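Cross-posting from the chemistry board since nobody answered there.

I work mostly on the small-molecule side, so proteins are not my area. We synthesized adenosine-5'-triphosphate and want a rough idea of how it might sit in this target. Sequence and SMILES are below. Is it possible to get a predicted 3D structure of the two together?
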Amino acid sequence: MAKPGDKDHDVGQTGHPGELVGVGEDVWMDVIHKMDEVYSDLLQYEVALEEKNAKLEESQQFILSVLTAMSDILVVCGRDGAIEDVNPALEVITGKSAESLRGSAIYDLFVGDDARDQARQLLTVFGEREVHDCELQLRAHDGSAVPVSFNCTPRFNAVGKSMGMVVTGRPVGELRKAYQALRQAHDDLKRTQQQLLHSEKMASLGRLVAGVAHELNNPISFILGNVHALRRYANRLETYLGAVHAGQSPKQLAEQRARLRIDRILDDLDPLIEGTIEGAERTRQIVDGLKRFSAIDRDEQQQFDLAEVVERAVRWVSQAARKDFKVRLDIPAPLMMIGSAGQMQQVMMNLVQNAWDATSTLGQPTLQISAEVDVASAQVCLRFEDNGPGIDPGNLAHVFDPFFTTKPVGQGTGLGLAISYGIIERHGGRLSAANASAGGAVFTACLPLAPLTPAC
Ligand SMILES: Nc1ncnc2c1ncn2[C@@H]1O[C@H](COP(=O)(O)OP(=O)(O)OP(=O)(O)O)[C@@H](O)[C@H]1O
Ligand SMILES: [Mg+2]
């Protein structure tokens, strides 16, 4: 390559005006070649620059579209709290343009001195650490306060120097409204569930009252009959005593005694009084049982005889059934366990009632209740097997679901078994359903028995 100072390149005058003296053609060619190279480099740089520019524009457009699409607000501010940039969401809420907001203090976006002080503290005092979900009131374009949940993150430059904060915020008004609506719906649901539970309780109470009424009817009519007889006897005894006090002759008195059948009255008095006492005693027992049933939630830890509870449940349901419902009870007594006798009574009544409901249209509705005691594990399994149609195999997995019922609308809440399942579980037991090979349904309730108190 030719260089200045080379002999051939000495500059001098040639014979032609405008030509440099002593410059050879090859030098010119060299220069032209160089210029070509530079020009082509320039062209390449221009193309690369244009490509980079296009990419830059594309990414700027992308960032802009993201910022515009954001429903959360975004504010970038310096260490002194001066706003450097905002996104359109903030413009919409405040009603101010990004230009007018730039340079102003971020604290002025908030309503009230407290919120402004709090923001100042968060952004300057704690300016180097993150802030999460801090709720402050933002001043809206109409002057109202919009609750916004803010998050702040410090912003650093390339060498790690703190440059200010990036603040994002989510208006929580809508969120809160949605939450309140959800809460309201949840409360309504809970209330409805309570009402349904209550109506299930009322339904089983209705069945119980029917059974109890029937059972009370017996001793009460017995007592009433006896008391009426006693009153008649009292009248006759009064008449006879009147004759005695009137000093009638022994013959007259003997006549009176025979006519009023005083001897028979005297013979009858004892059994009548005995019978009345027995009837009253029976009534007391029934009332006792009823009291135990109504103590549903009061005493969950009493010791009671499960056999007696089952027997009472059978009696009450079958008496209310008012048809020949044959219940074969084959369980050993006593079966002492600990828990709530009232709740257990509700379970047993549900199981017996379901069996009755499933068999009531049959000629001979039958329920067999048996018990298997396992002394080693101190538990008893009660088995309720009826001669009804059984449970559809597809329904077996759902019979314990709340509100599952195959009964016509208005005739079953579908809560009986769900409640029973919960009660048995709370007593440390298990309730299961199956179909017997003969066809009827089988419900098995396994429950822990009370530990035996050692004899002393
Ligand atoms: N012994 C049974 N034989 C056949 N199906 C039964 C038997 N017991 C329960 N079921 C089925 O299980 C369903 C749920 O029973 P559950 O006791 O929970 O509610 P329900 O009896 O329908 O209503 P409620 O108890 O409020 O009267 C019944 O509708 C029935 O389909
Ligand atoms: Mg039921």
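Reply from a structural biologist on the board:
Welcome over. Reading the output above for you: The first helix runs from residue 25 to 69. The radius of gyration is 50 Å. Happy to explain the token format if needed.
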